[in-house]
Amino acid sequence: MSSTKGENENVLVGVIGGSGLYHLNNLTILKETNPETPWGYPSSPITICALPSGTKVAFLARHGPGHTIPPSAVPSRANIAALKSLGVRAILAFSAVGSLREEIAPGDFVLPTQIIDRTKGVRPASFFEGTSVVAHAAFGDPFANRLVRWLETRVQKVLDNASPDEYAVSGKKPVLHTNKCIVCMEGPQFSTRAESKMYRMWGGDIINMSVLPEAKLAREAELGYALIATVTDYDSWREGESVVTAAEVFKTLHANAKLSRHVAASVLDDLNAEATQGDLLTEEQGSMKFSIMPRSGEQKEEDRDKLRFILPAYF
Ligand SMILES: CSC[C@H]1O[C@H](OP(=O)(O)O)[C@H](O)[C@@H]1O
Ligand SMILES: Nc1ncnc2[nH]cnc12
Questions:
Q1: Residue 233 a catalytic site member
Q2: S-S: 45 plus which of 32, 59, 80, 83, CB 3.0-4.6 Å?
Q3: Distance between CA 103 and CA 200 in Å, rounded?
Q4: Is this model's pTM higher than 0.80 or not?
Q5: How far is the CA of 300 from the centre of ligand 1 (A)?
Q6: Is the separation of the CB atoms in 162 and 248 below 8 Å?
Q7: 13-245+269-308: what CATH class?
Q8: Where is this site: Important for substrate specificity (predicted)?
Q9: If you take atom 5 of ligand 2, which residue's CA is the nearest one?
Q10: Which ligand is nearest to the Cα of residue 227, counting in written order?
Q11: Which of 118, 209, 249 to mutate to test the pocket of ligand 1 (most atoms within 8 A of CB)?
Q12: What is the complex's ipTM, to 2 decimals?
């Protein structure tokens, strides 16, 4: 495995695997790389693999290959910076989530478009933190909306073609839900019944512990970022029903991961083509230009060096 300072490998698409998704299928592993970034090393070495077509993608396991990193300790800055250093422009992030709505059932897929932040400020959430450079990224639309819309039809197609053995655990054909709001909690304990009900009143539809600060950092690094959420449980809001437990989550985790691999396999070639020549990802390019406060004379050179790693166009 190579350990570098981060070298552009011309890989345009990155995949972040969440709980249960520690590798992709039908890929030829070309190399493993472990780039050192100004924010440390990523959660796991990044696997650079080739699809059957030859298209290269970068895969990173969010919690480490053996799931040893809890959500609050995921080195998200290093993860995003490392992917960017390889040339990545778009990230498909997978996540196991709880459902806050009756109609969003275990086994279903969700492409959220909004986030409610319930993390507790213990996770470094900005590349600019601790530097002499101040920046305010726009985050009103926290996901790359064009990318999310583009994914909708493609994920739908995979779910339409899912065979009964693929959704045997949930016992019903998986449904794709769009335009939903995800709550990101700190964890690692699951929510109380009262919290779970409160999130519903706030407008939350699903819940996880991982989408933040990942999505914020992807925005700061001008990367297109979409979350493909797979539902494992009903959290703890249902009257008269038992609360979510890890055992409950594990029941659907592996079936969901299997279908997630199908989704990845079916979209990665087209996404790579879009990243190469389409205009799907142009929204994010240049988005930080006017977010950085323009007092460059007072910005420390060491901070500019650090930030150049993710935003070479401005530093
Ligand atoms: C294993 S249950 C809670 C855990 O699962 C989700 O992880 P990920 O988003 O990486 O799939 C959730 O966010 C929690 O970290
Ligand atoms: N109920 C839940 N709460 C938070 N994260 C989760 N990941 C999967 N299920 C979850």
A1: yes
A2: 32
A3: 13
A4: yes
A5: 37
A6: no
A7: alpha beta
A8: 191, 246
A9: 208
A10: 1
A11: 209
A12: 0.99
